[in-house]
């Protein structure tokens, strides 16, 4: 019995190591193109001409709604070229009243059967399309966000350059509230520089982040929104790839997002992300791979590989745990575990993983002692992804929306001064 168990463990670990290594080399290879930032045209070289509908999706956000609306009205962009809309989605508080007091155009939506941000956006898009005043593009934000004053200038530049869908830089407005918020912030800083930016440089598709993105209205009308799962951003990214569109990137269009403060809040949010990720993987993996191999489409291939990313993370976690057990208990069932690649290769691989992050964040000029402390606890945050991913994939058919409470009252002026 023990011999059979050892054989199963041995074979399983070999397969996991190969997948981890190949996928790691793939993602690392792409990330290299983001090490050096290229000089781009100044947004001031492009005359403001695009008209924007700025949409804020809000559900019981009376604590923070005023700050996002105020930050949008502080844009360094002609006021006649943008309007601010707030969707008061199934709200039972004063979100709608406060948003209206601060100048937003408020639409109240009450629908208990079609709940969630994706449904609210689809409802609002239909209203935008039917308006007499025509817009060139729509930008979407969350109620807890704060938006940099140059956001629309940057989006106008990218749209004038011919891009149809653009994602802005997602930063954190509360990175040092707790070890969870700091870990979240590190994850997003890393993603911005080694996932999003290099894909933009290589002509691949960046990923929509659920907020701070901009879509050409004609594209939205052509392919439709239809993204109503628990991760509508991921769903629409894959839909774009299948429709021969890609997501561009704007590194200087900064949107500050409020990160969950407690592990419980974080767990629920990330479980929802993994439920949506599993749902998207089940629906889009096949079509993306078929498009990739039939048409030689690298964008579709890269999107398909990204859908495998959570599985790779689970494998890394399991291999790490097995190695720890093997070290502490040499006579455990993992004693005969062998490395597919030489041990020195794995040491280099692991070392790069730990050194890579601090160097990337340093290049973004966010490195300080608190961030250094964050990298010491960041591995524990990463480990929590393992049970979250498993739980999310096992409950992918659960479509109940889990709302994250937001409570940080921070204005854009306070944040930019800090």
From TrEMBL:
Pfam families: Glyco_tranf_2_3
Sorted UniProt keywords: Glycosyltransferase, Membrane, Transferase, Transmembrane, Transmembrane helix
Transmembrane segments: 15-35, 298-324, 344-363, 375-394
Keyword Transcription regulation found: no
Taxonomy, superkingdom: Bacteria
A molecular-function term among this protein's GO annotations: glycosyltransferase activity
InterPro entries: Nucleotide-diphossugar_trans
Keyword Transmembrane: yes
Family label: Belongs to the glycosyltransferase 2 family.
Family annotation (PANTHER family): POLY-BETA-1,6-N-ACETYL-D-GLUCOSAMINE SYNTHASE
Protein name: Glycosyltransferase
Source species taxonomy: Bacteria, Bacillati, Bacillota, Clostridia, Eubacteriales
